[in-house]
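Slide 14.
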Amino acid sequence: MESHAIAALREEYEASGLSEADAGHDPVWLFGTWFDQAVASGMHEPNAMALATATPGALPSVRIVLLKGFDAEGAVFYTNRESRKGDDLEGNPHAALVMLWHPLQRQVRIEGSVTRVSDSESDDYFSSRPRTSQLGAVASDQSRVVADRVALERAYDAAEVSYPDDVARPMWWGGYRVSIDSIEFWQGRSGRMHDRIRFRAVGGQWLRERLAP
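Slide 15: predicted structure.
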């Protein structure tokens, strides 16, 4: 595709708006409302989100992960803690998240510090996963170079042999929680005059602000 053709791609946003009255004063409630609507819309994987991390030297990296928990304490996802994202978060425990619900012309951005979830939370979630996903977590040395696809399949087969019954959660696998230091709700509007409502945690309270599009 030629660059001028890419530049010509555009869509008018005019599904609805987001007023201060609609946003309310509790971003956790608003997120829950928007998330339920995203699920009800039938879109594919409404819990998919981009996770941006950076090394201590500020080299950025971004990838898609799945939201597995959300409350006033933050947004939770699970991963191999020895992966690139895990290495980044151990050295620089801050992250940014973006969830795009394109059919609803909505986007949510979260920024905050990152902590590990408890072992018991990680155990509970791991035990709820399908056996195939559990074995994949055991077999994959995530983010490391491997010889070829055959090597991956052999590692999976070896994990299957090692765990004929219940699969134990690997010590290197678990959850992270991104605190809600800042959360922005974006609603597409016509003429690119989008609604952007941001909440920031200030002194134990939520400060609500409207941002220019």
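Speaker note: The longest strand covers residues 106-116.
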